[in-house]
Every structure is written in C-alpha cells, then in structure tokens.
Amino acid sequence: MSRCYQQLTLVDRRRLHHLVERKVPINEMARQLGRHRSTIYREIRRNTFHDRELPEYSGYFSAVADDIAKERRRRLRKLRRNSHLRSMVIEKLEAYWSPEQIAGRLLADGLSLVRICAETIYRFIYGKEDYGLGLYRYLPEARRKRRPRASRKPRNSVFPASHRISQRSDFIGNRSRFGHWEGDLLIFERELGHANVTSLVERKSRYTVMIKNQSRHSRPIMDKIIGTFSPLPAFARQSFTFDRGTEFAGFRALEDGIGARSWFCDPSAPWQKGAVENANKRIRGFMPGDTDLAAVSQRDLTHLARHLNDQPRKCLGYKTPAEVFMAHLQEEG
C-alpha cells in the first residue's frame, strides 16, 4: 500500500460500488483497492446518496459519489477559487489579524460577496496545498501544526483575603463598567538580562498597554504603572486584577498613588484574568521568549500596543479596542 495519499478516482469508486453491492467487508475492500480501511469507511459514509422521500433509491453510486466529493472540495476551497478574497485574507494575516477577526470584519464591512468563516481560513493556512506560504507564522502562537492549547504553570504567593478575586464586585467580572484592568508580566530568557514587560488590558474595551521594566522588583513595576496611568481620569483606572506573582506584592502603592484597588486570582487559576492572558499570546507573536529587550525601547512597545489596539475584535462587534476605549473616555468624561 502506498504511503502517499491520493484522492479516489471515478474508476476507484466504480470498483467500490460493486464491492458495496456485494457487501464485501471493509477490510477486504481496502485490500483490493490498495487503500487504508479508514479511507474506504470515510468514502462510503460521506458520499453515500440519501433520498428521504424514496429511501429505496438511497445507496452508494460511483458517479453520484464522485459528484458529491467534487462539490465538497469546491466548497472548502473558496480561497483558491476567489483570488480577490484570497488576497484580502493573506493581506490581513500578514498584518497579524486572527482568522476570526478577518472573517468577522469581512462580514461586518460587506467587503466580499463570498462569506467565509474562521475555520475556512485555518484550513487554508494549514492545508497541504497552501501550507508552503507559511501563513501560520502570522497567527498569535505561530504553530506549525494545529494542536490543543497547553496550560501555563501558575505562580503562588500569599495575598490578603480581602483582595481575592472572589471579593471583587460583579460589575467588574461581567464587564458592565469601564476602567477595570488586568495585568501580567511577560518574562524573557534569563541569559538576556532581567528586563521584562508589564502587559495591562482594560476589561471592557480590551485596550492594551505595555510597559518596559528593568527588573522584577515589585515597587519599580508599580511605580511604572502609576506613572503610565496617572494622566488618565480616575474613572478609567479604578482597579487592577493580577495573578499571585511576587512582582505584584507592592500593590498597595497603586491605592496610594492613583487610588486604584487591586484584586488577585485564586491559586492555579490564570484563566480568571483571561483578557490579559489572550493579549499576551498576541504579543508573543511579535516578542517571543528569546527577544532581547535591550534592543526594544518603550516607543517600540507603545507602537506594538497601538497595532494591537487597532485590530477589530469579535467581542466588540468587530470594533477596535482603541475605538471603544476612546468612546468611553469621551462619553464618561
């Protein structure tokens, strides 16, 4: 049996039709056709004709099966048949838009008469015909193959019970009010020095802020946050939710400096600050763990944050975080 997979031809399907008529076992069909049994099973399951009104006419017929298979391939290859749509998708991928963002924005703006979903774009990226384009490099995690997401190992330390996330008001959790943030620290390879980046995301607008730090000492990190957020009105910086890393142990400085309350996730529960976790994945696409921060300025980080804030989000009705953030500042100011 060949190790190189080839599509079944009409001739193969004619032979298979006769074998099905004779009720030959699947394993024997596969042996006679020189195919894997899963290929034969899938072919029969997917390409059998079903007539609900006249069930006696249902069955596996070679010509009908061939037409069904060709039509399915045509549906799954929209981006190969429509060159204009294909070019738009590639352009947005190279601008580091996610497939979900691309599909949603195309629909929202009516830029294409052909509707596509995020899954179609993922199949285009990882399909064998277009894999050579290397478009996976522009996805948030730049994976060569599609696979389940892995979980991060959480940190643990001691923080006051009065500041646990369970004590946080419901309006923060349900994102009904503006001005509540999540924060995290992006760490890079130790050999490159102690510099790191604080990433902060406003929960309602998903607006991202990035701050460069020279060390993981808590007080300097808090001072940088205070200096960055002081120009904002008080309603835009009401609280911050962090994990239990020691770099956030100096959280009381935020209360004294800008009047912002701090909350902390439960142990082993980084998903409780999911907005900043998702933002970190996007940032890692531009700044992997081996990035030398000595060559990265605060201006570079601000430019990257602006780029992320100008990308449409499904959860915002395909508006951008920058648009939503500015609208809240103007409305509530």
Automatic annotation (TrEMBL):
Plastid keyword on record: no
InterPro entries reported in the protein's UniProt record: Integrase_cat-core, IS30-like_HTH, RNaseH-like_sf, RNaseH_sf, Transposase-Integrase, Transposase_IS30-like
Taxonomy, superkingdom: Bacteria
Keyword Magnesium listed: no
UniProtKB keywords: DNA recombination
Any Pfam family matching the protein: HTH_38
Residue span(s) of domain Integrase catalytic: 172-329
Protein name: IS30 family transposase
Organism of origin: Neorhizobium turbinariae
